[in-house]
Amino acid sequence: MRLRRAVAAALIILVALAAHWGGLLRPLNHALTSLRMYSEPRQPTGDVVVVDIDAKSIATIGSWPWPRRLHAELIDRLVELGASDIAFDIDFSAATNPTDDAALEAAIARAAGKITLAAFVQKQTTGADSAVAFNRPLARFAKNAWMGSVNVRQDSDGIVRQFGYGLILDGKVIPSIPSILAGGISRTGREFSIDFSIDTRAIDRISLIDVLRGTVDPQRLAGKKVIVGAQAVELRDFFNVPVAGTISGAMLQAAATETLLQGRALEPSSVWVEVAGLMLIALAVLAIGRVRWSTMVAALIAIAALTEAAAAMIQKEYAFATNTAPWHVAFATFAIAVLVSEIDIRELLQNMWRLRASNAEALLTKVVADNFAGVVVVDETGIVRAASRSASELLNLRRSLIGAAAREVLPPELMAGIDAVMAVPEFDRVSRRPSVTVLTRRDGQERAIEHVTTVSEVESVPAEGGGLRRQRVATVTFTDVTEQRAAEAQIAYMARFDALTELPNRNLVIERLEDVFASKDTAVRASAVVCLDLDGFKNVNDSLGHQTGDLLLQAVAQKATAILPHGAMVARLGGDEFAAIFSGKTASEDAVEFATRAVHKVNLPFDIAGHRILISASAGVALADARDRGPDDILKRADVALSRAKANGGNGVAIFERRMLEAVVERQKLELDLWQALEREEFEVWYQPQVELRTGRVAGVEALLRWRHPDRGLVMPGDFIPVAEAIGLIDELGQWVLETACAEVATWPADVRLAVNVSSAQFARCDMAALVASALEKGNLPASRLDLEITESVFLQPSSTLHDVLTSLRSMGVGIALDDFGTGYSSLGYLQKFPITKIKLDRQFVADLPANAGSAAIVRAVASLARELKLQLNAEGVEMVAQVAFLNAYGIDEVQGYLYGRPAPARDIIGTLEPSTEGVARLRA
Ligand code: C2E
Ligand code: CA
Ligand code: CA
Predict the structure, then answer these.
(1) In b/e form, how buried is each residue of 533-548, taking b as 16+ CB within 10 angstroms?
(2) What is the mean pLDDT of residues 82-104?
(3) Ligand 1 centroid distance, CA of 619 (Å)
(4) Are 842 and 822 a contacting pair, CB within 8 Å?
(5) Any idea what DSSP says for residue 824?
(6) Can you give the pLDDT at residue 463?
(7) Whether residue 565 has a cis bond before it, omega within 30° of 0
(8) CA-CA-CA-CA dihedral for 174, 177, 179, 184, to nearest 10
(9) How many angstroms separate the CA atoms of 573 and 564, rounded?
(10) How far is it, in rounded angstroms, from Cα 896 to Cα 691?
(11) Are β-strands 606-608 and 611-613 bridged in parallel, bridged antiparallel, or unpaired?
(12) Which is it for strands 129-135 and 85-88: parallel, antiparallel or unpaired?
């Protein structure tokens, strides 16, 4: 400490001295000295008067330089008025006209002893060498006068502060005018500082012209020391001085004279005084004990002020100009040293940090406040330090959270998160995974809030003050995910449930089955699946509309749910297909029972939207099998069983057996073969005669398709037409039959008609009118020889064009026969609505004739209907003569059946075209 002080003291002195001697302090010293002068003005003695050669004088006399006789006259006047000394600050070094010079010479002589004439040294720069020229008055003037130097020296800043006592030239002493006027002080060669505290404005100034005119109060000149000099601006004899500003040369002489007269020639301060002062300061620095820096600085300022006051006093009283600047520098240096060493740098830095921190905090506070999410920052003391507006909104708090005690404003669920993270010893171990909590807001609303609490360690200045402290803050960030959750739940629901029946859908079935399959419990794994499908649901949809169809599906779902045993699940797989899953020990029995009951329940009539709907269902049951690799396998097997149930005629249950798979494989093989059959030309058209009952003549033939397969042999249409329809081959196949038959029959006797079966599927998909027209044209068969046999199912497919197609076929001359009449829906309305030309009574009514009274009644009714509607009537499946008799009795037009001829290839049929006597004979019988 001591050492540091000593070093500081030494440094202070060194700095001050260096500055002083380096000349750096000169302006400060000048300024301080001038300031002291300025602050303590003093009056002149009044003994010195300046007679100005002013603008007024020059203007009156009219020229410059003046004739010397005017100066002579001035001397006379001044002497007359009693001036004690007259000094001329005018250059009389050159001769003018002799008369004038003589007059002046005489006047000077008259005033001998009172006159001082100006002399000055001038540096002459003539050519290369610079010589010093002494500019003195002419000898004729000088012989009766004093010679006073008027040399003025400007400081480097252009300001005149000093004045010389006199100068020595060639060994001769030439005192300055002020020295002479002040009465012979002679420290020639040296200078003194002019005391500008003497008010130069108070020195009497008289215009020269007034003296010549004699208008001056003699009092102003009597006994006075007069300095005559230029005052007019034009004469450019002006100097800048401290305090007084710009004054004329004469006035400068007057000020210097006054300085000497008043004994105020300011002695420049001695170096020793300055050094002594510095030493004193250094000692004081070493001696002073430890005080507060502020006290110290205040003391230094006080000491500096005192020093300055003392200097002012000394200057005023003793005309001693003290150079206080080095001391002030020392004080200032010391003060800075004190500030630097005494002020706690740490505190300073802390303050800076606090400022920076508060800026950063302001920014963060704003960022947090504007955050989209709910953000609440809580410090260790449980106070909310920052919060977003969203936080208040999400929690339905009407106030800002900032400053509040977190425990009082935050819901306990969020508070628990904060407590948890604050308690974790290592804060980077805190989980950052958001969690969702449903909390009840103050307004009673339940909201799902997704929140995450993080913890941060921050350095902060506690509100209560003091140093930096590491502390933890917990930040809860949360958003309201209520709507999002609801939407997600909705989507999740929609993904797993069927919107129409609200039953689980296929996805959930798969999920459930996966669970069952994954179970370790063998009892659970012993599962069973039932597939349930409505028979002919499509017809309900087509005939009663989709809305009714939907209602029916809902009703079926209800029935199925009602009979579902506990723990089982029933789902809608799509369309009219349902599935039920059973697991556990009794799974197989439960499944079979459910399937049976479901089929039975569906069989009961439904009353839906004013319709009584009769429908049946088929069910397939599959039991879990060790060979199942996943849910799909058991579902597929249940489906296979379902297919079997359907194939068995519907309205029943089939339980999966391995061999059903073979049927499926077989069906797939059949489909494959069928695709290739057309290409391989395996199809043949056979013909069955249609006989005119009245004459026994073959009126026409029905084209019936046959498939001659290399392995399968001759395949009947019943075995492949439905498959061709199902796989979409029927269009091509139908066209082939039509074209082949038309072309073939065209070569037969012109009175033989051709009937071609057309599948309903073809009507739905093809432009039948165009197809038929093209086939007729290609085959060269007149349209009037062709009948198309359609079944009632064609009317069930909603087709806006069906009527038009049939009408245009009719207009071409093609006949339309309604096949299998009596087996389908038999809405008699069709007969009127569509352009039908023939009814083909289904063979089931013919088969048990005449014994079956019911069939007989139907035949009778249909016969009379045909007659009424003027439709032709064909009876199919006539095998026995007894049947013929019955049909004949009711006036049936046309018969077809094994009795008249089985379907046969074209070459076999041609021979039968001529009515055989045998046949006719049979008819007669
Ligand atoms: P369908 O139109 O009712 O044809 C009459 C069926 O009855 C033929 O069977 C025929 O052989 C059989 N049949 C005729 N007379 C008798 C009889 O006295 N007793 C018995 N038991 N049966 C008799 P097929 O040829 O097996 O044809 C079955 C069905 O296949 C046809 O029924 C028809 O719906 C369909 N079909 C045949 N060929 C074609 C075709 O080219 N196109 C379309 N779309 N369907 C065809
Ligand atoms: Ca037919
Ligand atoms: Ca038929």
Answers:
(1) bbbebebbbbbbeeeb
(2) 87
(3) 30
(4) yes
(5) S
(6) 57
(7) no
(8) 70
(9) 16
(10) 6
(11) antiparallel
(12) unpaired
**What tokens were used for 308?**
């300055």
Q: 463: how many CB neighbours lie within 10 A of its CB? A: 10
Contacts of 271 (CB under 8 A, 6+ apart): none
* Ligand 1 pocket test target in 684, 756, 757, 792 with most atoms within 8 Å of CB: 757
Ligand 1 atom at minimal distance to the Cα of residue 903: 11
Order across the sheet with 446-460: list the strands.
Answer: 384-387, 374-379, 469-480, 446-460, 435-440
Could you say which DSSP state residue 451 is in? E
Relative orientation angle of helices 2-21 and 271-287, to the nearest 10 degrees: 160
Task: State whether the beta carbon of 847 lies less than 6 angstroms from ligand 1.
Answer: no
Q: Which of 541, 679, 522 is nearest to 585 (CA)?
A: 522
CA-wise closest residue to 591 among 617, 618, 623, 626: 623
The residue among 373, 374, 445 whose CA lies nearest residue 410 is: 374
Q: Is the minimum distance from the CB of 792 to ligand 1 under 6 angstroms?
A: no
Distances (CA, A) of 468 to 347, 459, 471: 10, 6, 9
Residue 511, classed as helix, strand or coil, is helix
> What tens digit of pLDDT does each residue of 725-750 get?
989 899 999 999 999 999 999 999 99
pLDDT, tens digit, for every residue of 119-128? 887 766 555 5
pTM: 0.47
68/218 Cα distance (integer angstroms): 23
Q: 197, 230, 290, 226: which is closest to 5 by C-alpha?
A: 290
3-state secondary structure of 860: helix
Are β-strands 838-841 and 815-821 bridged in parallel, bridged antiparallel, or unpaired?
parallel
Whether the upstream peptide bond of residue 44 has omega within 30° of 0, thus cis, is: no
pLDDT tens digits, residue range 325-380?
888 888 888 787 777 776 666 677 778 887 887 887 788 888 888 888 899 999 88
Residue pair 501/577 in contact by the 8 Å Cβ criterion: no
Q: Is 875 in the pocket of ligand 1 (CB under 6 A)?
A: no
CA–CA distance, 118 with 52 (Å, rounded to integer): 15
